[in-house]
C-alpha cells in the first residue's frame, strides 16, 4: 500500500469548501483515504477537523439566513441636529414684570422712564 504525500494529494483532490456539500464531500473523501491507509492518521485527522470546522461555520451561516428570512430592503433614516443638552433649558428672568426672551427688555410706557433715568445717571458720571 502506498502512502501519498500531503502536498501531492490534498491540493489536487480536495477543493476549498464554499458550500455544505463540498465540505461534506471533502470529509468523506479524506475519511476514505484514511481508512484505506493512503493518508497518515494524524494528517488525515487534521484535514478532517479543518473541513469539519468549515462545515460547522457554513451550517451556522445557513441557519442564520433561514432564521432571518429573505433579505429585506433597508431604510436608512438620517436626522440632523443634536439632542438638547441637560441644563441648557434656561428660563430667562423677568425685568420689572416683563419677559426678556433673550432680546433685552421690552420697551413700553411702563419701562421707558426707568430706562431714561438709568441713561441719565450713566451720562452724569
Fold and architecture overview:
The protein has helices at residues 6-13, 20-35, 41-68, 112-124; strands spanning 94-95, 98-99. It has 125 residues and is mostly helical. It has a two-stranded antiparallel ribbon. A hairpin with a 2-residue loop joins β1 (94-95) and β2 (98-99). The longest helix is centred in the middle third of the chain and has 28 residues, at 41-68.
Principal-axes geometry comes out as rod-shaped
Q: What Rg is obtained from the alpha carbons, in whole angstroms? A: 41 Å
Task: Sketch the major β-sheet.
Answer: 2 strands, antiparallel
Strand order of the largest sheet: 1-2
**Helix and strand pattern:** HHHEEH
Q: What is the helical fraction, as a range of percent?
A: 40-55%
- Provide a count of the helices: 4
The overall number of domains is 2
Summing up helix and strand content along with how strands pair, one would put the structural category as mainly alpha
Report low-confidence residues grouped into runs of 5 or more.
Answer: none
Rounded average pLDDT:
76
Terminal CA distance reads: 118 Å
What's the number of extended β-strand segments?
2
Strand content: under 5%
Amino acid at each position: 500500500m502506498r502512502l501519498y504525500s500531503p502536498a501531492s494529494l490534498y491540493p489536487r483532490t480536495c477543493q476549498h469548501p464554499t458550500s455544505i456539500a463540498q465540505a461534506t464531500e471533502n470529509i468523506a473523501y479524506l475519511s476514505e483515504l484514511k481508512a484505506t491507509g493512503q493518508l497518515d492518521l494524524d494528517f488525515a485527522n487534521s484535514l478532517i477537523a479543518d473541513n469539519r470546522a468549515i462545515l460547522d461555520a457554513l451550517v451556522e451561516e445557513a441557519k442564520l439566513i433561514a432564521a432571518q428570512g429573505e433579505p429585506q430592503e433597508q431604510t436608512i433614516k438620517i436626522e440632523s441636529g443634536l439632542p438638547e443638552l441637560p441644563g441648557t433649558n434656561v428660563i430667562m428672568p423677568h425685568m420689572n414684570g416683563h419677559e426678556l426672551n433673550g432680546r433685552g427688555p421690552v420697551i413700553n410706557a411702563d419701562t421707558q422712564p426707568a430706562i431714561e433715568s438709568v441713561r441719565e445717571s450713566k451720562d452724569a458720571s
